[in-house]
């Protein structure tokens, strides 16, 4: 599996009636990632999701129209009426940002199970620029755990839960620091308030397993996890299997990286230790501040 490189460009237009429109994504190139839209042998194409919002300098955009679902680029509209003082540099942008703040993102504690995909609003991103909101690269703050499951009995998945054995926070609010001048300092990134050491994927309609492996993706904050993770795979009839995610010597999970823990067969009341069998980047590891 290869994750496409990600870039996000903003094109500024003259404000009209306090409205500012910012286009995120470069036509003909790899778009900003909120969900996988094409999983092929040559890689994953990615695109925006309908309903997505972006925060710029603390002001939240309007929700992206459903017509932009899966688009490689999309235009976000901000209403700065009564807040034009915030339309000044530096320009700090957030995806999965917390409304009413200008430096906080939210990692979902319960993520909707999407067939072989990540749910919208699960992969926080940021960008910062000292002078313009044109040609700004969005950068990831999340890592992703991937586990693939089979079950010849055709059980229906209810939930996958994951807990950080070292007590690290997996969900809730996380804040970026700010450098001199007010730009984001992404090297400072830490829990900020309501947080939990667990995260879960829940299947609303039930995801039936079979002999062909199904892939599940769980987004977590990038960072150091000292003791790995403990997970439970719970079926609709409440049967479960325990999973220990062992990273061996690898303890720091990089931003924009999928950690593949391989394929496992569901065994009721079973226990399994899984280790990282591969990693893939899904973003550009370069910050574009200017």
Structure explained in plain terms:
The chain has strands at 19-24, 35-40, 43-47, 54-56, 59-60, 74-79, 91-95, 104-107, 110-112, 125-129, 139-140, 142-150, 156-164, 171-178, 184-196, 198-208, 214-221, 223-224, 229-235, 240-246, 252-253, 257-265, 271-275, 278-281. The two termini are 32 Å apart. Strands 9-16-13-19-20-23 form a six-stranded mixed β-sheet, with no helix packed on it. A five-stranded antiparallel β-sheet has the order 5-4-7-10-11, with no helix packed on it. It has a four-stranded mixed β-sheet with strand order 17-12-22-24, with no helix packed on it. It has 290 residues and is an all-beta fold. It is built from no helices and 24 strands.
Give a short synopsis of this structure.
This protein has 290 residues and is mostly beta strands.
Spatial strand arrangement across the major sheet: 9-16-13-19-20-23
Oligomer: single chain
What level of helicity do the residues show? under 10%
Instruction: Tell me about the largest β-sheet.
Output: 6 strands, mixed
Helix/strand order, N-terminal first? EEEEEEEEEEEEEEEEEEEEEEEE
Calculate the mean pLDDT score and round it: 81
Radius of gyration: 19 Å
Our count of helices gives 0
Number of β-strand runs: 24
* Through-space gap between termini: 32 Å
Overall outline: globular
Main structural class = mainly beta
Strand content: over 45%
Q: Low-confidence parts lasting 5 or more residues at pLDDT below 50?
A: 1-16, 26-45, 283-290
